[in-house]
Specification:
CATH superfamily of the largest domain in chain A: FAD/NAD(P)-binding domain
Oligomer: heterodimer
Shape of chain A: elongated
Largest interface: A-B, 21 and 28 residues
Strand content of chain A: 25-35%
Distance between the termini of chain A: 95 Å
Radius of gyration of chain B: 15 Å
Number of strands of chain A: 51
Number of helices of chain B: 2
Shape of chain B: globular
């Protein structure tokens, strides 16, 4: 048995030994232990080093609020830092390392920071390292230089770099009553609501239901509290309408009574069971919530209150009662309230000697004196602890007479030998969720605590959360809350009877003992009482400024221990009562949430994919697929040994020499139908569509309301009232919403219906000098000659028995045809075209070759229609009809949009025969000594097989006027500089003779 | 946040797309009054309290809704079709069901 483990008692299973390592050293514990309880049982006192001063720190608490004992848990290559040792359930093989120490936990070089304590006060780094006003390291440059070293010295655990391979899950749940917290109040509430037939969820952040009943040593219904809790939870398990969620922290309370919770499903297991995620992120919509979240015990602020061996009183009580661990053999107690007396008795009963109870109050009740007698403890009333002694463990304390009214110390300090000091500064209800839900907390002078506000959402409080600290009150309030939350009244039946130690719930209003030495307010961020006063002296008196200047309450424990003491010290400095200083509002999350759980199922395998009907064919025929939004499209159909550039150049060249075919199924397709369809398109597009003949298509441009270019595409008139609009792949959804908005909100009088038909059609574009011959070889039911199918004409026919619709239009600049068929026949028609093309040397081409040919033609895409360019900038002003208003027409001629100096579309030719880079800047001259401003940037680039040169499209200031001049690209990031010639964006076949045929 | 779509019932906000300030008035298409256009395109109310908003039920029936939402509490006090054409919409729905 370990030196500090009691022979009996607690929930641990002494017959099951569990082996784990801490900083490489092997330890054992028992089933039911947390890492903190197991290490304490092994006599470990030193758990970590503090944030700023690298002071040795032990374990302060026994729960989620732990600020000191933070560790890094290793699972294979994955390291998870800043986990509270109090929340880690041990399992065989658990591997844990301590943090913020170098070279080792017990011998840390940065601990010398403690000697400079006066220096390292709030704001020290910023004040000191701001740097001189002049010179090479002036002002912030010096800070940036020093920051690197400072950040390394201060801090917590180190994040890992290995990818997290664990699986995370999301769950949505609905219930009538969500009960948060499963202490006596929560258990009663859940039971009462469940008995009313309500659907109940009971969440508990610890592994076991019961809360304080598990360690208070009280008797409920004639049995030990822990047994009563286990029975109550067991009964709830039998209800079909109750869901129990252990190890689940409700961390966010959002509007509409929506709550977020994190369930730690397998963190306590050596390896997850089949199909089990590591964490589960719950979104719970509750009609009503019972907040039974209990309270946190507060530390007292006095010199040396952070030494290992100083612990919250209830935490020690819990270690003794729940885990059978004594945190010390000679225990002293320092308190301002009655609750610590029960803790004293519990530790005495577990086998420790209580050497003194130091109470700041001069007068004590007879009940407390009796409890102290029972604990065989000497009471030092009207005394305070003024110092602690020891290094990596406590060896003793010093006490002095203390006047509670004025805070004065008197008499000589007296030393008391102790290896553990328990402190209790009163209790703060855990009101975080209620505060998140919307309202301001209210200060209660008797309890010396902020109590929950009046509900602004559908919640009811119960138990210690409301400031009712006794178990009997918790049981009564819990049941009432459960009934009320479920909308029931219920016949009054007898409540469970509680036998508990007596005690006044109101502490003395003492938060700090002012004596020489560092008195910590925020343990985790090393904020001392003096830092708070310094903030006051320097004028940071608002509670929000105090928080940011000192970083009080901004560590991972989010001020669970430090908020109230910090406020009290600031209030004293200001000479104001605490409620006038105010408190900051709590924000989600209540405690740390794994990022993996937030991202659960939104990445990886569960990301939706959109595949064209011909997808499998592309993959089977050697295409390298490229992800474009949710779509997958062939990038190239590479031959063995080919580079990407070689592949696309071959594909583009072959298309211009014979013919090529490309899958264009991803284009957005919207059926625009109805009596007013033509009128609607006239309003939506900058050019006319009402004049378009049936059986013809037209290229159209849309602007946004602010007059900037929005999207382009062709629209086909299939009937008098029937149009098929195509959009760019990327904008399909946006254009659809744009059209719907205008039809629904602005012009409800127009009789037009729009339907997304993107997925209904498969599209193949076949282009090149041999394209028509290929089509003619496989089409039936129509001719495809110039007369029957002129440029922008539409015909219907059949290919291999399947109806197709063909429009003669061109993106590549070649004579080209878009062949549409029902999506289900996409591959069938595609294969028929490939087969027909074989004698003509037809090639398949991908996005790269498509892009290359469009750059050669100077067509615009999303890279140029970037939300900043106008139609004029893109030389599309010929499409702006003057005969009618259209969306954007009123705003497109605003001063700034027609002024000189705008970025305009141009072509660039590389003059050094080297590739150009997308995003590279363009300057008038390269001059290192006197760098020139950018006059634009490259939007798209490629090697042009048609020109035999590296070319690019670019947006260049006053670009049209610069045609024929030289400029330089300046791309320091990729170290690419070189001369270019600015030309028209129409590089190839500018008069379009090839596509018109 | 839940929005009660008149077609679909109460749905999570994730199904909806915010389509802007519902107080905007679009000038007549041929209007050359740049001030009016400017107000329509750029001026937005930003009240602390009830706000008229347009939301599209993009993950559902795709109707545009005029929603009055309290920007401080997210309470939604009214939801109506932006078309303002309740009867026609309801009739449309009834016909669709029959």
């Amino acid at each position: 048995m370990s030196p500090r483990r009691t022979d009996a008692g607690g929930r641990i299973d002494r017959l099951r030994t569990i082996r784990f390592t801490f900083d490489g050293a092997p330890y054992t514990g028992h089933a039911g232990d947390t890492l903190a309880s197991a290490l304490l049982a092994n006599g470990v006192t030193l758990f970590g080093r503090s944030f700023k001063y690298h002071r040795p720190r032990g374990v302060l608490t026994s729960g989620v609020e732990e600020p000191n004992a933070l560790v890094t848990v290793l699972r294979g290559e994955v390291r998870e830092p800043n986990i509270a040792a109090t929340m880690v359930e041990i399992y065989d093989g658990l591997t844990v390392v301590s943090q913020n120490r170098f070279p080792s936990l017990s011998w840390d070089v940065s601990a010398v920071n403690q000697l400079g304590g006066k220096l390292l006060s709030a704001g020290f780094y910023y004040k000191t390292f701001m740097g001189p006003a002049i010179g090479p390291l002036k002002s912030t440059r010096f800070w940036m230089f020093c920051e690197h070293f400072i950040r390394r010295a201060a801090g917590l655990g180190r994040a890992g770099t290995a990818p997290d391979t664990a699986r995370y899950e999301r769950m949505n749940a609905f219930c009538d009553v969500l009960v948060v917290g499963s202490g006596p109040a929560g258990l009663m509430a859940a039971r009462a609501a469940a008995d009313q037939g309500a659907r109940v969820i009971l969440s508990e952040l610890e592994p076991h239901f019961g809360g304080s009943a598990n360690w208070s040593g009280e008797t409920i219904d004639g049995m030990p509290g822990a047994d009563w809790a286990a029975r109550a939870a067991g009964q709830l398990e039998g209800y079909d309408n109750v869901r129990l969620l252990p190890r689940t922290t409700v961390w966010g309370y959002y509007d509409g009574n929506t709550l977020a919770a994190l369930e730690r499903v397998t963190d306590h297991k050596e390896r997850p069971g089949k199909g089990e995620p590591r964490h589960r992120y719950w979104t719970i919509r509750a009609k009503s919530v019972v907040l039974a979240t209990g309270s946190f015990e507060r530390p007292l602020v006095f010199p040396g209150n952070d030494r290992p061996g100083v612990m919250l009183a209830h935490a020690a009580e819990r270690y003794a009662n729940e885990y059978g661990v004594l945190p010390g053999n000679r225990i002293a107690i320092f308190t301002n309230n009655d609750s610590a007396y029960r803790s004293a008795l519990a530790l005495k009963n577990a086998g420790a000697a209580i050497v003194a109870i130091v109470d700041v109050r001069p007068e004590l009740s007879s009940e407390m004196r009796e409890l102290a007698d029972e604990a065989e403890a000497k009471i030092l009333a009207g005394h305070a602890v003024v110092a602690t002694e020891g290094g990596k463990a406590l060896s003793g304390i010093k006490v002095q007479r203390f006047d509670m009214v004025n805070g004065a110390l008197a008499g000589d300090p007296r030393s008391i030998q102790a290896d553990c000091l328990l402190m209790s500064g009163g209790w703060s209800p855990t009101i975080h969720l209620a505060s998140q839900a919307g309202a301001k907390a209210e200060w209660n002078a008797a309890r010396q605590a902020f109590l929950p506000p009046k509900p602004t959402q559908q919640w009811i409080g119960a138990g210690a959360f409301t400031g009712s600290f006794s178990t009997a009150e918790a049981i009564a309030e819990g049941r009432a809350a459960g009934l009320s939350a479920a909308g029931g009244t219920g016949a009054p039946t007898a409540l469970p009877v509680v036998e508990a130690a007596p005690g006044d719930p109101d502490p003395a209003p003492v938060f700090e003992i002012k004596a020489d030495g560092k008195s910590f307010v925020d343990f985790q961020h090393d904020v001392t009482a003096e830092d708070v006063r310094l903030a006051h002296r320097e004028g940071f008196v608002s509670v929000e400024h105090l928080k940011r200047y000192t970083t009080l309450g901004m560590a991972t424990d989010q001020g669970k221990n430090s908020n109230i003491p910090g406020l009290a010290i600031m209030a004293e400095a200001l000479g104001k009562p605490i409620p006038e200083v105010g408190t900051t509002r709590f924000r989600p999350p209540f405690s740390a949430v794994s990022i993996g759980s937030l991202a659960a199922e939104r990445f990886g395998d569960l990301r939706p994919e959109r595949l064209t009907p011909m997808h499998d064919w592309h993959v089977a025929n050697g295409a390298t697929m490229y992800s474009a939004g949710l779509w997958y499209r062939p990038m190239i159909y590479g031959h063995p040994g080919e580079t990407i550039e070689q592949a696309y150049v071959r594909e583009a060249r072959a298309t211009r020499e014979s013919a090529g075919i490309v899958d264009v199924s991803t284009l957005g397709k919207i059926a625009v139908q109805g009596p007013d369809a033509a009128e609607f398109l006239d309003r939506v597009y900058t050019n006319m569509f009402s004049t378009l003949a049936v059986g013809k298509a037209r290229y159209g441009l849309m602007l946004r309301e602010d007059g900037l270019a929005f999207d382009d595409g062709t629209t086909w008139r299939l009937g008098d009232q029937d149009f098929l609009m195509t959009t760019t792949t990327a904008n399909a959804g946006k254009v659809m919403q744009h059209l719907e908005y205008f039809l629904d909100v602005i012009w409800p009088e127009l009789k037009v219906h729009v339907t997304s038909v993107t997925d209904e059609w498969a599209g193949a574009a076949i282009g090149g000098p041999k394209a028509r011959a290929i089509l003619a070889a496989c089409i039936t039911g129509t001719a495809v000659d110039n007369a029957t199918l002129p440029f922008m004409g539409i015909v219907h026919g059949k290919i291999s028995g399947v109806p197709v619709m063909i429009c003669r239009l061109s993106f590549s600049g070649e004579m080209a045809f878009e062949v549409y068929s029902g999506a289900g026949y996409g591959t069938h028609v595609w294969e028929a075209l490939i087969e027909a093309g074989k004698p003509f040397g037809l090639v398949t081409y991908g996005l790269e070759a498509l892009g290359t040919m469009r750059i050669e033609k100077g067509h615009v895409t999303g890279a140029e229609i970037d939300g900043r360019t106008t139609a004029r900038d893109l030389h599309l002003d010929w499409m702006l009809s003057k005969k009618k208003p259209f969306i954007g027409s009123a705003m497109m001629d605003r001063e700034g949009l027609i002024a000189p100096g705008r970025l305009e579309l141009v072509g660039l030719i590389s003059l050094d025969n080297q590739p150009l880079n997308g995003g590279a800047h363009i300057v008038e001259a390269l001059d290192e000594a006197n760098p020139h401003d950018s006059i634009g940037h490259i939007t798209a680039c490629c090697y042009s097989p048609a020109l035999g040169k590296y070319i690019a499209l670019a947006l260049v200031k006053d670009g049209k006027a610069r045609r024929g001049t030289r400029a330089h690209i300046s791309d320091p990031l990729r170290n690419r500089f070189g001369p270019v010639e600015i030309v028209s964006n129409h590089f190839f076949d500018p008069d379009g003779s090839r596509m018109h045929g | 946040m839940l929005i009660t779509c008149p077609y679909c019932g109460p749905r999570d906000v994730i199904e909806f797309t915010y389509q802007g300030d519902g107080n905007r008035e679009r000038p007549q298409p041929a209007s050359q009054n740049l001030d009016a256009w400017n107000a329509y395109v750029y001026d937005r109310l930003n009240p602390a309290g009830d706000h008229n908003e347009i939301w599209q039920h993009s993950g559902g029936c795709r109707a545009h809704l005029k929603v009055v939402r309290n920007t401080l509490t997210h309470d939604i006090s009214s939801v109506a079709f932006a078309r303002g054409d309740h009867k026609a919409a309801a009739r449309h729905k009834a016909e669709g069901k029959a």
